[in-house]
Amino acid sequence: MSDRLASLLRADPIVTKVLAAVQQAGPDGAFVAAGFIRNRVWDSFYPDNKAASDLDIDVVYFDNERTDKNTERNFEERLDRVLPTGIWQVRNQARMHSFGGHAPFESLIHGLTHWAETATTVGARLDANRDLEFIAPFGFDDLWDHVLRITPIMKQTDPVGFDNRLERKGWLTRWPKLKVVRD
């Protein structure tokens, strides 16, 4: 599965520039994740559709030592100097637990398991050899099977929020064959 994803991402010149910028100017251990990755896979299932522009580029990392918002903003500014987009969104998962009222997260993977949908938790980065490395706490199946599945924690804590995201983001209009799984 990851070879297939690597091929898709490497074929996209925007993705290659974004991953290189994060490797150069992003936080240590950061991944590009969320809609930036998911949308490219799901858009590839609809060859007649034009890919929508990116609303943001989600960069995620975990650093227990520096958990202030200013650190994230500094990384966003650094990334924008390397690759000017104005849409960088850098988030340290070591501080994101407070938004859902959760206990502190123990790792990047632990933080990602608290996101709303399984396919959204897939992330990519370049390693020191410029090979693609992936993070996927729920695996790759939902991403490739075109399934929007609520995560167990979201189902337990905010199932209405999942439905609101689905409606607000217009995903069933953009991807009409998307399978939505709430169980």
Task: Describe this structure as you would to a colleague.
This protein is α/β, with parallel strands linked by helices. The protein has one domain: Beta Polymerase, domain 2. 44% of the residues lie in helices and 15% in strands. It has 10 helices and 7 strands. Helix 4 (69-82) links the parallel strand 2 (57-61) and strand 3. Helix 2 (13-25) crosses helix 4 (69-82).
Secondary-structure map with pairings?
Elements: H1 2-10, H2 13-25, E1 31-33, H3 35-44, E2 57-61, H4 69-82, E3 88-92, H5 97-100, H6 108-112, E4 123-126, E5 132-135, H7 141-144, E6 147-149, H8 152-157, H9 159-169, H10 171-174, E7 179-181
Parallel strand pairs: 2-3, 6-7
Antiparallel strand pairs: 1-2, 4-5
Helix pairs in contact: 2-4
Low-confidence stretches: none
Measured as a percent range, the helix fraction is 40-55%
Q: CATH topology, which one? A: Beta Polymerase, domain 2
Corresponding CATH architecture? 2-Layer Sandwich
Q: What is the highest CATH level, the class?
A: Alpha Beta
Q: If strands are numbered along the chain, what order do they take across the biggest sheet?
A: 1-2-3
Radius of gyration: 16 Å
Number of helices: 10
Mean pLDDT across the residues is: 94
Which class do the helix and strand fractions yield? Answer: alpha/beta
Can you say what the CATH homologous superfamily is?
Answer: Beta Polymerase, domain 2
> What letter string, H or E per element, gives the SSE order?
HHEHEHEHHEEHEHHHE
The domain count comes to 1
Judging from the principal axes of the Cα atoms, what is the shape?
globular
Major sheet summary line:
3 strands, mixed
Please provide the count of β strands: 7
Strand content: 5-15%
- The N- and C-terminal alpha carbons lie at a distance of 24 Å
